[in-house]
Amino acid sequence: MTVEPARPASPLPAVAPGATAAVSAPPVVAHPPGGRAAWLAWSIGVSVYVLAVIHRTSLGVAGLDAADRFGIGASALSTFSILQVLVYAAMQIPVGLLVDRFGPRRVLLLGILLLSTGQLAFAFSDAFAPALASRAVLGCGDAMTFISVLRIAARWFPAARNPFVAQLTGLAGMGGNLVTTVVLAQALHSEGWTPTFTAIALLGIGVFALVALFLREAPGTVPVGPAGPAGPRPGVGGQVREAWREPGTRLGLWVHFTTQFPGNAFGLLWGLPYLVEAQGMSRTEAGGLLTLLVLANMSFGFLFGRLLSRTARVRMPIVFTAIGATAALWAAVLAWPGGHPPLWLLVAVILVMGSNGPASLVGLDYARARNPVERLGTASGIVNMGGFIGTMITLLGIGVLLDTLSPAGADTYSATAFRWAFCWQYVPLAVGTLMILRLRRKLAPATP
Predict the structure, then answer these.
(1) Is 110 helix (H, G, I), strand (E, B) or coil?
(2) Whole domain around residue 209: which residue ranges?
């Protein structure tokens, strides 16, 4: 006699005769697991962001070289960074939508291709127009990195860890800035323009292979798409409108706008010319202070990440402390008699500007806390526009004022011209602070 093997008990409840069994969706894990696999996925994703920061900040140590190579003044020189930042800001919402629809891995791969193509074209440009176009392509690729890494982190880590991981992402990006200020500045001096920028462009080959072969967007227990029953997705306009209607998204945008731009404008373009032309430093000394800005940024990123992972109540204190300290120290620098402040004061303002980037990530915390995961990329894109719009306004304002105050060209930029040009920072600073106060009152008392 043959004995039929026992069948495993069905995990589904019995269905009464005549009733229709409901097809249940796979269970959704509410909290991603974290662990070694999460850190590996994040590390691969963040390598693309580090590469993007190297590309983005490469002009910061090459501004004077670019002015000589293309025969341009301050306004035209600022156009490089303005266009790059403008493209970056304009791409944030489209990139957020792409991340939400197609996943961060594909967006990162496209970003690497655009970064490498733009930088390679920049390396061989010997005229202003093609060089400008290449920076626009580079800005488009840059725009695809940070939001994608944040989306990977949101899938791999528990929600309580996300503020800390976001700050670590910014901290890692500053490692790319450190490469720019230390390695790239020296390479430009020793190797020249084309070999240096070509080498940076070719770094993308290795990073592309790393992402293509090894990056997993999410652990197997966490669905890539939004949880819940399948339904029609909102259109592009509807997705953006829903994200914008969240008050936390708008508050996050203005927090990002107000806190990020002073350090960004200084590090991206105007820091080296200010320290060399207005303060009489050598390029080596100026590069050392720009390195200090990067190290301060990394230190504040780690500190703010630890604080934010413990409690959300520190969000606004961090934001207002960064804004107030930056405004106060720049006032002391710009008001110093003769326009030549002592070294200790320059060091102090650079250290405080190191808090700007990490403080701007608080804006992303507001958006992440108030938007569902299926539109997190879109909301993050809206917020991430803020700081780069502020940076663009600041870069342009300083360049126009410098050319107005020194019509004879870059060789005549004085400490007084830089002092009045840098006063422009207080315009976006005041506008952004007023908007934060207005939106915070609308969200109070629920928003810390």
Answers:
(1) helix
(2) 36-218+236-443
In a domain, 229, yes or no: no
Look at the chain and report how many structural domains it folds into.
Answer: 1
Give the CA count within 13 Å in the CB-facing half-sphere of 19.
8
Tokens 């008699």 sit on residue: 337
CB 251 within 8 A of CB 244: no
Is residue 28 in some structural domain? no
DSSP string of 187-254, one letter each residue: HHHHH-HHHHHHHHHHHHHHHHHHHHHH--SS-TTS-SS-SSS--PPP-HHHHHHHHHHSHHHHHHHH
Residue with tokens 């030549």: 340
Over residues 287-341, the pLDDT tens digits come to: 889 889 988 988 998 899 889 888 888 999 999 999 999 999 999 999 998 888 9
Query: What are the angstrom distances between the C-alpha of 318 and each of 8, 322, 360?
Result: 56, 6, 9
Cβ atoms 88, 142 nearer than 8 A: yes
| Count of CB atoms situated within 10 Å of the CB of 99 | 25
Tokens for 331, please give them.
């006032």
- For the chain, the residue count is 448
Q: Please report, for the domain that includes residue 172, its CATH number.
A: 1.20.1250.20
Omega prior to 223 cis, within 30 of 0: no
**Cα–Cα distance measured from residue 165 to residue 153, given in angstroms and rounded to the nearest whole number:** 7
> Does the structure show a pLDDT above 60 at 80?
yes
Torsion of CA 122, 127, 132, 135, to 10 degrees: 10
**Half-sphere exposure at residue 312, Cβ-oriented, CA atoms within 13 angstroms:** 15
Contacts of 318-324 with CB under 8 Å at 24 or more apart are: 318/359, 318/362, 319/255, 319/258, 319/259, 319/359, 319/362, 319/436, 321/355, 321/359, 322/259, 322/352, 322/355, 322/356, 322/359, 323/258, 323/259, 323/359, 323/429, 323/432, 323/433
Element (H, E) at 106: helix 104-124
Q: Are 278 and 413 in contact (CB under 8 A)?
A: yes
pLDDT at position 448: 55
DSSP 30: S
- Pick the closest to residue 325 from 354, 283, 304 (CA basis): 354
Domain contains 27? no
Q: What is the pLDDT of residues 123-176, one digit of tens each?
A: 999 899 999 999 999 999 999 999 899 889 988 988 778 888 888 898 888 888
Rounded to 5 degrees, φ, ψ at 351 are -60, -45
Confidence of residue 444 (pLDDT cuts 50, 70, 90): low
Residue 361 resides in a domain: yes
CA geometry: angle at 120 spanning 119 and 122, to 5°?
Answer: 60
- Whether the Cβ atoms of residue 284 and residue 181 lie closer than 8 Å to each other: no
